[in-house]
Amino acid sequence: MSESPAHTPTADEELDLRGVICPYNFVKTKLKLETMAPGQLLLVHLDDGDPIRNVPRSVSDDGHDVLSQERAEQSYRVMIRKRLDE
Q1: pLDDT tens for residues 55-68?
Q2: Closest of 42, 39, 21 to residue 31, by C-alpha
Q3: pLDDT attached to residue 34
């Protein structure tokens, strides 16, 4: 049996931004998304506080889909699907 739940998609790319302050974590997320193909999935690790409040909202404002946000120890894992209309 698989260790990851069936409903959790596998990320195409992963970005660990723990310890990165705002707005740099959003800038790095945006730059990474720009290198990816439309529809690909990016898993971003973010700290609690401003990063988890601001980054998902900002990428959503840019037209990307935030598929999930889950707590993982002292940080959060955010799954983002790159927008399809590029």
Answers
A1: 999 999 999 999 99
A2: 42
A3: 97
Instruction: Show the domains of the chain with their CATH numbers.
Output: 13-81 (3.30.110.40)
- Tell me the three state secondary structure of residue 85: coil
Out of 12, 13, 22, 41, the active site residue is 22
Give the CA count within 13 Å in the CB-facing half-sphere of 35.
10
pLDDT score at 4:
44
Does the active-site annotation cover 17?
A: no
Question: Do 48 and 77 contact (CB within 8 A), yes or no?
Answer: no
